[in-house]
Design brief:
about 190 residues, mainly beta, four-stranded antiparallel beta sheet, 9 strands, about 10% helix, elongated
Amino acid sequence: MSIENFFYLNIVGEIKSVKFPLGPYGSGVFCRYDIVAGDDWEIVSGIKSGITQCANGGKESDEIVFNMPIECTYKSTNIFGWPQIVFSIYGTNIWGTEVNLGYARTHVPCFATKEGKKSDFTVLKAPIIIPKSTNIWSSCINFITARNPELRDPPKILSDGTKTKNLFTSSYGEVISSLCIITKGTDKFVYDF
């Protein structure tokens, strides 16, 4: 009988909505998510990235509802590189072109549920950050074209905190998600979730 030297982490939940205080800067809003984990983490089942449907907010609403399910299972030998979810929000501007509306990032909760009840889901609110131009000429061009600067590889840049030190951003809105984790095999590593 072989003894497994790793533990499992099952992530279940949904991207509930995106909330903009004064409404989004565009229409046809959708969200791309990427689950990013450390080098020791291996995905066993499920998918680690996806795209929601396009949605528009109501006339008086500042919230755009997605209800996009998320489900995947990882295995790892240690907790270093705990999974994070990076959100990239896109929409259509006044010129009808697809532009980014911002990015958000949150860690997966580290407390497992005992019975998997709906009340055990953790509601997470991740602030949306919008990259800003570093000079006046780029800012003018971005204003005329109604485009924000885009990150080249958002999951890699946002999951590593050292790469965002010199990034000029502003915050506008939040991504609301509801997540639950289930662990198996953590008792062998003396991890108390």
